[in-house]
Write a structure and sequence with these properties.
CATH architecture: Alpha-Beta Barrel
CATH class: Alpha Beta
Largest sheet: 8 strands, parallel
Structural class: alpha/beta
Distance between the termini: 42 Å
Strand order of the largest sheet: 8-7-6-3-2-1-10-9
Number of domains: 1
Bound molecules: 1,3-dihydroxyacetonephosphate
CATH superfamily: Aldolase class I
Shape: globular
Radius of gyration: 19 Å
Number of strands: 10
CATH topology: TIM Barrel
Strand content: 5-15%
Helix content: 40-55%
């Protein structure tokens, strides 16, 4: 893929108020999600669930990309159609999680570094053959007493930059995901500081590694109060602080920013995105979504492992995706939630 082709894929993913469905839960993580609905996690049940998501009629109106796990990109739907072709048929770019998880960072109690660089060039080539056009790597930054350390932020920024350069060399658009976790009792000010430090380090590393900013997307957390903080910032404050933090740290050359939901409820994640896009004053990048839980939660619950519930689950995903698409242009209102209840 040429630099121009990478840029056009990156732009296409955030065009027309569309965003990304993150469905790249690792086998242990999807197992935990299935436990909440009492479904055994097997290769077949995982495939049935992911096929349910991706065959939702009309999903491509609102979703431009889907992030898959290694197992899923090799699977076919129960009807025998390769998952990659199901997505392509909906006009959705197939993407792939290429990191191998966040592991304990040596010498840094309570901190993590993401692994997966060994052999990555070869895996990228294989994923390209399988039909992927973009990739994702998630770094995790934890806020706590005296953490994050500079060492942790830099180790993760370095790995993200190496990953991104390898992706571009191999023809995949890298989604660069430094997630500052919302776990903890810290206030929004602290999240703002840590997110600013993290993004500044990440863009410095991307520059040092020669990554084309035009041919990538950023997937950050929002600037938000810690989940256990007594004073929870409201929607407008989260929106204003997040956009201000990004304006400080993210070059205008980046075509799009696709947020993770990180444990926010479905509705709150949509409200935050909407409020950012409704802010007066322009910003240089598209602001869209790359939600996992905030798109899937109700669909998963409605499905409950039964083929009889597929249509109801798909209705839930369809409407959630539609609301988040509306939020990409600041056009979401809470009245729209009524459509979901009616469905
Ligand atoms: P959540 O939106 O559930 O945080 O998942 C997005 C994701 O891909 C995390 O890496």
């Amino acid at each position: 893929m040429t630099v121009q082709q990478l840029e056009s894929v990156a732009q296409d993913i955030v065009a027309d108020a569309r965003g990304i469905l993150a469905a790249d839960e690792s086998t242990p993580t999807i197992g935990k999600r299935f436990e909440t609905i009492g479904v055994e996690s097997t290769e077949d049940s995982r495939c049935a669930y992911r096929a349910l998501l991706f065959t939702t009629a009309g999903l491509g109106e609102f979703v431009s990309g889907a992030i898959l796990y290694d197992e899923t990109i090799r699977q076919s739907s129960p009807e025998g159609i390769p998952i990659v072709e199901v997505l392509q048929g909906q006009g959705i770019h197939p993407g792939i999680k290429v990191d191998t998880g966040a592991k304990a960072l040596a010498g840094a109690a309570g901190e993590k570094v993401t692994e997966g660089l060994d052999g990555l060039r070869e895996r990228i080539a294989e994923y390209r053959e399988l039909g992927a056009t973009f990739a994702k790597w998630r770094a995790v930054i934890t806020i706590g007493d005296a953490i994050p350390s500079r060492y942790c932020i830099e180790a993760n920024a370095h790995a993200l930059a190496r990953y991104a350069r390898l992706c571009q060399e191999g023809g995949l658009v890298p989604i660069v995901e430094p997630e500052v976790l919302m776990d903890g009792a810290h206030d929004i000010e602290r999240c703002d500081e840590v997110t600013t430090d993290t993004l500044a380090a990440v863009f410095h590393a991307l520059h040092e590694h020669g990554v084309s900013l035009e041919g990538m997307l950023l997937k950050p957390n929002m600037v938000i109060s810690g989940a256990e903080c007594a004073a929870q910032a409201g929607i407008e404050e989260v929106a204003a602080r997040t956009v201000a933090c990004l304006a400080r740290t993210v070059p205008a050359a980046v075509p799009g920013i696709v947020f993770l939901s990180g444990g926010q409820s479905d509705e709150v994640a949509t409200q935050h995105l909407n409020a950012m896009n409704a802010l007066t004053g322009s910003h240089p990048w598209k602001l869209s979504f790359s939600y996992g839980r905030a798109l899937q939660a109700l669909a998963l619950k409605r499905w409950g492992g039964s083929a009889d519930n597929v249509a109801a689950a798909q209705q839930a995903l369809y409407h959630r995706a539609k609301f988040n698409s509306a939020a990409c242009s600041g056009g979401y209102t809470r009245d729209m939630e009524g459509e979901l209840e009616a469905a």
